[in-house]
Specification:
Elements: H1 3-16, H2 23-26, H3 51-55, H4 78-112, H5 118-133, H6 136-154, H7 158-171, H8 191-215, H9 217-223, H10 228-241, H11 245-260, H12 265-289, H13 291-313, H14 328-359, H15 364-382, H16 385-394, H17 401-430, H18 443-447, H19 450-472, H20 476-499, H21 504-541
Amino acid sequence: MAGAPAGRGGQRGAAAGSGAPRWARAGPGPAPRGGPAAGAPPRPGGGGCSPRAARGARGWAPARACRPRAPGAPRAAGGAGAGAGAGAGAGAGVEGAEEALWRRVLKFVGPAALIPLADPIQGLVDTVCVGQLAGTQQLAALGPNTLIFNFVVYLFFGIGSCTTIFMGKALNPGNGGEPSAEGSGISEPDAAQVLACACLVAVALGLANIFVLRLLSGPALTLVGTSAALVAAGESYLQVRSLAAPAVLLSMAAQGALLSVKDSKTPLCAVLLAVGVNIALDVLLVGRMGLEGAALATVVAQHVQLALLFGGLLWPGRPWKRGRAPSAGQFFSFLRKFCAISVMYVVKNFCYLALIYRVFSLRVLELAAHQVAWSVWCICSYLTAPGEQVAFAFIPAARSPEEESHTIRTVLALGLAAGVLTGAGCALALSFPALFTSDATLWPDVRGLVAPAFLSLLLCGVEVASGGVLLAKEDFGYVQKALILALVVMGGYMWTSQKMVWGLRAIWWGLALFMGCRMSLSASRVLVRHLPELESRAARHD
């Protein structure tokens, strides 16, 4: 732990210096540790200072000045009063550290909360411009294309999370996290090596995406149910859009690296610039080129975003500007951990696909009501991401078990707050369905989803935060098993709902069940295993 050596070293230095207690210098021989020298005058009522008082709340509160009491001198305000004063001093130090942590977290979360909204906003811009400038048929072809591209990219969404986690560990070696496995023969990578591994994986997967999407664009569109009349228009869009895959994955890796050094402003500026470029090019190109113009606008915007992110990576003073190339062992170690994280996103995606597949069997009015509610719910769910981002950026950087424990509690509190706020916002929006559709026949069905939408987002906020803690602690095996169990529960509920011919509201309660299952499994693991382990380690260090 970074805080441990400083606290203990400071204590040893104080004992050896000129400020040693008077009884430690009075006798003819060396003083035994923790007691007076032979022949020293007696110490009525005790004296000196304890090691705990000398080092204070290590890693959090500054060490209290410890002055020896002259032999025979009366205790100031009695033993109880001194103890109370010591406790108050340590408590004030801890409270100050907690306030400082919250200030850093909130400064980081402000810009970071808006970063995940880039894709939904750009998708909305494409939809509006194609609908207004290209016609209904091309608008209909846009939906399946967006679904395919987002699904393929989402399979590799873990590249950003993996980069943030392991960059944080590289920047804070020996920070009190879990000890690395011994006997592997692979040295821990430095910051430059982590970034190089992430970029290599992103480039390789991006080029593979281009090859697969261009080769299988037609069959992929047919597989998701696109009509033959729309395949031709959709195929050209997907082939152009695939050119953005390397830039998208490299941008994820760059964002992860920047977030690991608590820089959330550069990714936010890059996202805002990309959205602005996308809007301007959509207006210029969609009317002339149709869907291909929308795809080209998105490709250019993604590369502009990547250029700004890499400019942030090359900013003077970045910790990864100097380093060696990663070894083959380090690269494959990073790749294995990335695959472990990606399994989580794949399973989660299949859970949402089970919900969407079940909704497709409903009548038209319920399907339309679901589309309204689902659009609002998805945007709100993106706003629960800061809990996960804070876990990735701050837990690996914790300098002591005490600080790591408090950081985890802060992450869980932030997740709960995000869940409450996003759930309340979604419920409020769905309470006024006229904002989204003028068809009054849909309004009762939309309002009927207020309760399950609120509960599912509340649970989602806590689950995202606790899941982020588990990933930051590299508890990959448990996360995978928990998500597979949640997938089984979700699939079983949706199968039952289809057999029992349940309606839209019951399906949305299934979404709340899915989130509740994930939340209970993730939060219980954090509260029952990881926090007690940290508290035990902190007690041993004391």
